[in-house]
Structures are given as structure tokens and as C-alpha cells.
Design brief:
CATH superfamily of the largest domain: Zn peptidases
CATH topology of the largest domain: Aminopeptidase
Order of helices and strands: HHEHEEEEHEHEEEHEEEHEEHEHEEEH
Number of domains: 2
Shape: elongated
Number of strands: 18
Strand content: 25-35%
CATH class of the largest domain: Alpha Beta
Distance between the termini: 27 Å
Structural class: alpha+beta
Radius of gyration: 23 Å
CATH architecture of the largest domain: 3-Layer(aba) Sandwich
Length: about 375
């Protein structure tokens, strides 16, 4: 494998820093999308932006570009361009061999480290004297952080690849996500009756108290090795001297076993209903499937390619399961085989988010190796799309 040269590594870091400086919270990816599209065009690639923006709740669509290979085979690589909301301006600085935000806020390495790697790989492949053994399709999605909406809206039918990879798990390079959970979101709206809290409290129906009773009876946290449940937000009331008429509660259930997720979800709904009935409150419940879980088969060709690529770069592959989701969930649900690989970033979504120089450069080496190893994968392992 021809490793990345010094100029490539330097440019990788420059691209990463420039992308991080562009704030792109979910729904507001346009400046970052334009930056990536411009870079792809400068490299010499045709870029297509789909119409996923409105349905994904974003001001931009997903980007697609392709580098042709020597034959019909290709693989897909994907990164998302949105971040969780930044709480401070982003100014990347190098500290002890790693990139961090100089301010007290996220860096945006999730997932701009992967986006930078893909841009550098695209440049290498497009400017090489010979085309790669397999083609590479590059997909940059929007609105991943708030429910994988960009990937859900992407038309996988346009992909020519047999399988794809995302670099979107904030753990050491070498880890491969072989199972990801189903994620169900629950929103409970309790409607009581307002009354003066000091003069006529008995005339009121306290919606917050009803919600609290429901939550107190729920089993939350890690329920077993494959299932979690959480109540994340609760809001209601207008003033301390008013019996609160309304209360809104948001929660979630995640699990690798579909039946278990449904059982926990049903139990949470029942707890809300029982508490609302006891307090003589009305209840509106909304349940939304944010994404569906998946398991990768042990002999899946994308898994074999990833393992060979990681070993070629000096990493020992480690299969893991996760409680988080990624665009891989959306692609798998749509019928397109996709594997999520760890990207070496640290503490994503936190003010002390970080990615080391070694991890960023290592991610590029793995991406290069994925292309080379996919070129040696027997084409009969799975029919090309």
C-alpha cells in the first residue's frame, strides 16, 4: 500500500481545520456543504446535490460524487456534514499532539474528520496516473445528528457499489460496529387543569405531578446488555402560584432486540397512561422510530474488506456493538449494506472533544487501504448493485 505522503498529510489537517471552523449544526449545513462541493469540483469531480434538504429539515441536500475505477466494481464512503449545536466559536488548536477547540465547546471532529479524509482520498484517486482498482462513490449527508434524516432521504438506488463504509464511531481506530440498535423516541403530552396554587389548588389537575409519578415508576438506564431507556427532557408550568396545566416529557428506548424494545416502549406508555388517569389528566402520546437496528453477518464482504484494510495499516480489528446510531443504520434499512468504522475521535458531543494527529492520519491510511482491499475482494462474494 502506498502510504499518504507528507503533502497529503499536511493538506488533510488544513482541510480538517477549515471544515471545523464552519459552523454547521443540523439544519444549517449550507456553508459547509458549499465548501465541500467546491473542493470536490476543484479536484475535478462532478458533484450532485440531491433534494433531500426540505424533507431532512436542512438548508442543503446530500452531496454525491464519484471516482471511476478500472472496472465496474465500486465502494461507497460516507460522512455527515452536520454537528450537534456548537456552544462556542470553533477555533481548532494543536495541544499535545491532538486537535481541540481553543474555546469551551465542541470541535466538530464528529464527523468532519471523516469528511476531511474523504476529500483527501478523492484528491489522491482523481489525480493518480491510473484509476483505482475499484471506483469510489462519495456521499456527504446532512441532518445526521438529529435522526439520520439526510441518509434516510438519500436514494440508494443511484449507488453502483456493492457495499459502503461510514467513519462515524468515536472510539479507537480498529473497532468495527457489527450491531447497532433500534431507536424509538417517545413524547408524552399531559393536559391537566390550571388553578390558583394558594387559593384553589383542589380545583387544579397537576400535569407535572402526573408526569413525575409516571417517571418514578419506570425502569430507566441500562435495562440489560442490549437495551437502554431514558427520560431526557421534561417541561411545563407557567408560574409557581399556578397548578400546571400542561407538561411535556421526551424519552427514548434503544435496543438490539426488536421485541425487547417494543416491550419496554409499551411499558413506558402504560406508565404514562396510569399516572394520567390517576391524576384525571388527558394524555397524548407520540412514538417515532428514529432508526432501525441491524447486525452484520460474520461473512459479509464489507466486513472482510475492513478487517484486511485495518490489518494492512497496523490495526487489529475488533468487532463491537454500540448503543448509538449512524448513517449506516439508514443505509442498511434501505437495503444497502454498510459498515460503521471507528474514526479515532474522542469525547464527541462534549466541550473537550478531540482527535489526535495520529488518528486523523490513520483514518486516511485506512480509507486508502479500503479501496485497495476492495479491489482484491472476489466479485462473486456479492452481486454488484
Amino acid at each position: 500500500m502506498r502510504r499518504a505522503g507528507e503533502a497529503e498529510r499536511e493538506r488533510l489537517h488544513e482541510t480538517f481545520v477549515s471544515l471545523c471552523r464552519i459552523e454547521s449544526p443540523s439544519g444549517h449545513e449550507r456553508p459547509c456543504t458549499d465548501r465541500v462541493a467546491d473542493e470536490l469540483r476543484r479536484i475535478g469531480l462532478e458533484v450532485d446535490e440531491d433534494d433531500a434538504g426540505p424533507s431532512a429539515g436542512a438548508d442543503a441536500g446530500n452531496l454525491y460524487a464519484r471516482v471511476a475505477g478500472r472496472g465496474a466494481e465500486s465502494i461507497m464512503l460516507c460522512a455527515h456534514l452536520d454537528t450537534v449545536p456548537p456552544t462556542a466559536p470553533i477555533e481548532p488548536v494543536l495541544i499535545d499532539g491532538g486537535w481541540e477547540n481553543a474555546r469551551d465547546g465542541i470541535l466538530g471532529a464528529d464527523n468532519k474528520a471523516a469528511a476531511a479524509v474523504m476529500l483527501e482520498l478523492a484528491r489522491r484517486l482523481a489525480r493518480a496516473p491510473d484509476p483505482p482498482a475499484v471506483g469510489v462513490e462519495f456521499v456527504f449527508t446532512v441532518s445526521e445528528e438529529n435522526g439520520l434524516h439526510g441518509a434516510k432521504a438519500f436514494d440508494v438506488g443511484r449507488l453502483r457499489s456493492r457495499f459502503g463504509f461510514v467513519f462515524d464511531h468515536a472510539t479507537p481506530i480498529g473497532e468495527i460496529v457489527i450491531a447497532s440498535p433500534t431507536y424509538q423516541r417517545i413524547v408524552a403530552e399531559l393536559h391537566g387543569r390550571a388553578a390558583h396554587a394558594g387559593i384553589r389548588p383542589e380545583d387544579g389537575r397537576n400535569a407535572i405531578a402526573a408526569a413525575a409519578r409516571a417517571i418514578a415508576t419506570m425502569e430507566l438506564g441500562r435495562l440489560d446488555s442490549e437495551t437502554t431507556a431514558n427520560i431526557g427532557t421534561i417541561a411545563g408550568g407557567t408560574a409557581t402560584n399556578v397548578v400546571p396545566e400542561r407538561c411535556r416529557v421526551e424519552g427514548e428506548v434503544r435496543g438490539l432486540a426488536e421485541q425487547r424494545v417494543e416491550e419496554v416502549l409499551t411499558d413506558m406508555v402504560d406508565r404514562f397512561q396510569d399516572a394520567a388517569d390517576a391524576a384525571e389528566c388527558d394524555l397524548d402520546i407520540t412514538v417515532e422510530r428514529m432508526f432501525t437496528g441491524y447486525r452484520i453477518k460474520p461473512r459479509a464482504p464489507q466486513l472482510a474488506v475492513a478487517e484486511r484494510a485495518l490489518r494492512a495499516c497496523g490495526y487489529e480489528p475488533l468487532a463491537i456493538v454500540t448503543g448509538g446510531g449512524s448513517d449506516a443504520n439508514a443505509f442498511e434499512t434501505a437495503g444497502f449494506p454498510c459498515l460503521n468504522l471507528a474514526n479515532g475521535t474522542e469525547r464527541n458531543h462534549q466541550p473537550d472533544e478531540r482527535v489526535s494527529v495520529d488518528a486523523l492520519e490513520g483514518m486516511l491510511e485506512v480509507a486508502i487501504a479500503l479501496v485497495e482491499e476492495a479491489g482484491s475482494e472476489p466479485s462473486g462474494a456479492q452481486e454488484p448493485r
